[in-house]
């Protein structure tokens, strides 16, 4: 969960979010290197008297300032394309979680890959006096998913467009009426993760929090038995 004054990402709660953070740091290092190079030569050009009125062409330097940016872009493109491929890989999911957005609460249906319904739960926001200082973040019920188990998330809506978003997990899926959007999720640790609807969906848009708890498999099955 975010804290005041935090400038970086939240602690990753999924393997995809870890990769997103690594890719962000890698890209930022490249950007800082290019920026430093440009600033240094800009300052040198301003303070020095390097002027050659007879200099009209330089094929070597033109080749270098063409090929180096291309190599940098290739370095960025390969890990980016790999992440895009992994995000869309749904071949190894063991559970299906259907997320349904309503005005203004979330419903969850846990199913097997063979579409056998295991459990369903509705999650409403807790009133301010029961939220223990975590205003607009707590719900009366919450979703549980097992850690280290690939889960296919199906997102849809019952009325207007919503958006199921959990920043610490690196997932955001638009809930559109009459349409199913797929997300891929594998939790990497036991924790509680918080999110909110990130699509303006009406008067109570601010009151659609999301709570997802990553648990061990035996705790997940015990939760299913209680529902």
Structure in words:
There is one protein chain. The chain has 227 residues and is α+β, with helices and mostly antiparallel strands. It contains three helices and ten strands. The strands form two sheets. A five-stranded mixed sheet has the order 3-2-1-5-8, with no helix packed on it. Strands 4-10-9-6-7 form a five-stranded mixed sheet. Helix 1 packs antiparallel against helix 2 (59-87). The longest helix is centred in the first third of the chain and has 33 residues, at 15-47. The protein is elongated. It is a multi-pass membrane protein. InterPro entries: CcO_II, CcO_II-like_C, Copper_CuA, Cupredoxin, Cyt_c_oxidase_su2_TM_dom, Cyt_c_oxidase_su2_TM_sf. Keywords: Copper, Electron transport, Magnesium, Membrane, Metal-binding, Mitochondrion, Mitochondrion inner membrane, Respiratory chain, Translocase, Transmembrane, Transmembrane helix, Transport.
**Strands, total number:** 10
Q: Name the CATH superfamily classification of the largest domain.
A: Cupredoxins -  blue copper proteins
> What is the name of the CATH class of the largest domain?
Mainly Beta
Number of helices: 3
Helix coverage percent: 25-40%
Strand order of the largest sheet: 3-2-1-5-8
Q: Tell me, rounded to a whole number, the average pLDDT.
A: 88
Which CATH architecture of the largest domain would you pick?
Answer: Sandwich
Count of folded domains? 2
How far from one another are the termini?
27 Å
Poorly predicted runs: none
- The CATH topology of the largest domain turns out to be Immunoglobulin-like
Beta-strand percentage range: 25-35%
Shape descriptor reads elongated
Structural class: alpha+beta
Main location: mitochondrion
Pfam families: COX2, COX2_TM
Domain Cytochrome oxidase subunit II transmembrane region profile: 1-91
Domain Cytochrome oxidase subunit II copper A binding: 92-226
């Amino acid at each position: 969960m975010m804290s005041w004054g935090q400038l970086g990402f939240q602690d990753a709660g999924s393997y995809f979010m870890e990769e997103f953070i690594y890719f962000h740091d890698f890209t930022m290092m490249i950007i800082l290197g290019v920026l430093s190079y440009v600033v240094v030569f800009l300052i040198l050009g301003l303070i020095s008297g390097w002027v050659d009125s007879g200099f009209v062409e330089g094929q070597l330097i033109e080749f270098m300032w063409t090929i180096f940016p291309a190599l940098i872009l290739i370095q960025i493109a390969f890990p980016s394309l790999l992440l895009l491929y992994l995000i869309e890989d749904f071949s190894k999911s063991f559970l299906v979680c259907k997320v349904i957005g309503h005005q203004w609460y979330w419903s969850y249906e846990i199913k097997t890959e063979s579409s056998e319904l295991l459990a369903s739960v509705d999650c409403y926001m807790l009133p301010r006096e029961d939220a223990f200082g975590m205003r607009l973040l707590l719900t009366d019920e919450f979703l549980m998913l097992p850690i280290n188990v690939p889960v296919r998330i199906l997102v849809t809506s019952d009325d207007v467009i919503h958006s199921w978003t959990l920043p610490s997990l690196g997932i955001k899926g638009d809930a559109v009426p009459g349409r199913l959007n797929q997300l891929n999720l594998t939790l990497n640790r036991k924790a509680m993760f918080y999110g909110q609807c990130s699509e303006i969906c009406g008067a109570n848009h601010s009151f659609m929090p999301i709570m997802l708890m990553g648990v061990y498999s035996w705790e997940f099955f015990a939760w299913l038995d209680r529902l």
